[in-house]
């Protein structure tokens, strides 16, 4: 070829033989005149073989525009500087930078051109991918409907891969079906075939790619391998495919399918294009869905009935809705653009603002948050809000925004606080109630056992508090209790608990008063109890009036063993009961023996209740005689024959009946039995006055008079032959009420007697107003009746009063003849005592007057003769 070249051109070629740059010399007709060794290496076939080929054989895939530039350069001598695809004889396609210059010649027009080839494959690939990303991202960056964006993406991808079919399929919400969203290079027949796929049909590479979340390639495919639309793809000339899953934030969005006309695809450029296309398409789908989600969120933000705010990832408030402004008073100008940590609205105080900042840091470092916080409105008022924050993420999983919802729960919080107050605190005094006291007592017990520390429990009960309520009214009583609670609180430590159990009962719990139960600890607690007693005795000034109260107390120390909180409260109550029994205003420590006494009392109460209903009680009579020793009346007494314990004395079970309230039921039974006995006496023709003891508690029972009237009517007893005995010492300040009830009963014809006369403090003027028929001199005045002593004087005075009031006088407890003589000499009407007869079963006392069949001879119990 050198013979065709100018001498200077030949020199140029020889100079370029060993250069590293590939050089080709071509004629204007497109013939290769010479190549150097570097070009032979680039072409893959050596310099000699490379020179034998046509120029354009190295550029089979050159774009038409670039081909036109080559042809123009050869024909007109235009200089070249372009990048074109270069296909070597052996090896993969390369990209080269082609530059040209005309070689020296004697002719007016160049006879040859030198083409310089620089391998720019790597640079071209990087630049192409960058341009491809920009090209693909262009439709993504535009705010357009998803369908339009995906259609533009498919067209761009298909343009980068000529002859390749592209299909973008999205996974529907049910996750069972793919829907074709955009295609390029595919016919409408294929789209129709895809639309006819049923939801349950998961055949085909696209479904496998979605299920496996990995690319699925089909080589040299048959129609069956492609599933739906396979025949259409074959008819379009496609031979292979690649299905790549589209993956968003933690989930599969769909699939990007590529259909190739060749069975085998081994081109790194295509792989790069595919990878870029898949990534950008995934981003486009995710962004469109995020944008739609934000759009719906924005619409919902304004339509929501709850206050809502949107913050960016840095914590800057981006937007609020109208409800937020209405709820807080802060408008967009006050909030938007400010950092959330600057919006502290809580109450002032040490640590509050730091707590708010800690909450904000927790919010901004997590994907979601729920909690309650006290906030401030713009007008300065405070309210409670339930805050729920949710993080929004982009396609890469990074948090972009937080959506915060504020729900005003002030009313609920206030209701909860009120319910808590009602559940655990006394509504009148504000002190802890029994429930809260037991909770705290359980904690003190557990702590004491763990750390071996002693605590104390003081049960406080006011003495005769009912009198204050009855005389001055309940409003004064309530005020006194409130003032008393404050006074107790002022006397104890901060860690102590003062609780109100109800009524006038209070409990003071003293945690940690010593290391062991000892005399010193007991003295310490006793000193505090004495101080409390003195404090409570100080007068209470209520509405300008001074009221005096006092209390009794029971104390128990803890822990002693495995007692529960209820056990300890019961121990303190038992000790209080002992204080009340000993005397008002006393303080008593619990002792183990007290528990046994309380149990004995409870057992006796239970057995007495059973005895009243099952016939274990009997009526006994003790005769009353006149001055001649003839029985003219009798006092009815109750005796209890227990099936196990034998006879139980009245002095043992009457107090139990009084305290438990069984005295009402017992008294009603006794009165009914005496009425029946009186009726039998009348039927036998021997009317005899019978006396029955009636307790003050019976008088206070509503409907007591009506019950007595019904008993008289049902039994048919003669009221004038029944005498109700009332103990003088029990009348007290309630005497006025008792007199009123006595008057009603007197109108029924019943007679009345004052028992134990002389031992109480009856006002003689009021005594005169009582409907009495007799009085009974207490036996304590009969023990030493001699001339001139005090007892004799009192008896004579009582007899004198009775004579003036025209009342019968009965002297009980007459045991000696000298007592009887003294009483007869001074005009005592009736005598009762062991001198004449002991109490015996009614049937025994009246056997001479009753029918023989009704007689019960020698009533015995447990083998013992009744005395």
TrEMBL record:
The record's CDD domains line, in alphabetical order, gives:
EAL (cd01948), GGDEF (cd01949), PAS (cd00130)
Q: Residue span of the signal peptide, if any?
A: none
Task: Enumerate the spans annotated as EAL domain.
Answer: 601-853
Query: Domain PAC: where?
Result: 369-421
Q: Name one Pfam family in it.
A: EAL
- Please report the stretch or stretches of sequence annotated as the GGDEF domain: 453-592
The record's annotation in PANTHER family points to: BIOFILM ARCHITECTURE MAINTENANCE PROTEIN MBAA, DIGUANYLATE CYCLASE DGCP
Output this protein's name. Answer: EAL domain-containing protein
> What broad taxonomic lineage does this protein's source fall under?
Bacteria, Pseudomonadati, Pseudomonadota, Gammaproteobacteria, Oceanospirillales
